[in-house]
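Bug #77: duplicate submission created two jobs. Keeping one. Sequence:
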Amino acid sequence: MTIFTLSLFSNPLYSQVAVIVHATNQQALTESDIKNLFTGKLKSFPDGNPVIVLNLPEGDPNQSLFNQKVLGRSDAQVKAFWSKLMFTGKGTPPKEVTAEEMIKLVSENPSTIGIVDSAAVSDKVRVLIQH
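Kept job's structure:
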C-alpha cells in the first residue's frame, strides 16, 4: 500500500457529519439557521415550534467536525462561548448525548435536532445538511 492509500483510511477529515431531525420534520433550515440553533440564538423552528438541540459529547470527533465546519469555531472556542453565556445567565449549552442515543432521541421527537456521523443516518431521521 502506498502512503497516500494509508492516509485515506487513517485521516478523520474524510468522515462527514450530518445534522438530523425527525423523519416527519419538514422544516427548511439554512446553514445560518442551524448555526443559530446550536449557539442558542434561535429557540424555535421557522414555524414557531420549540426546538430541542442535542450535541455529541465534548471530544467526540464528529462534534469537533461540526464545530469547525458549521459553527466556524474550535472546540475550545465553543466551550468558552457557552461558559460565558452560562456565567452571565444568558444561555445553557445543548444537552450532550452519545451517538447511539442521538438517532433514538431524534427519531422519537419531531422537536429535536442533532448531529451524527453521516454513516449512522437511518430512515428514522432526515438529514438537513452534511459536511
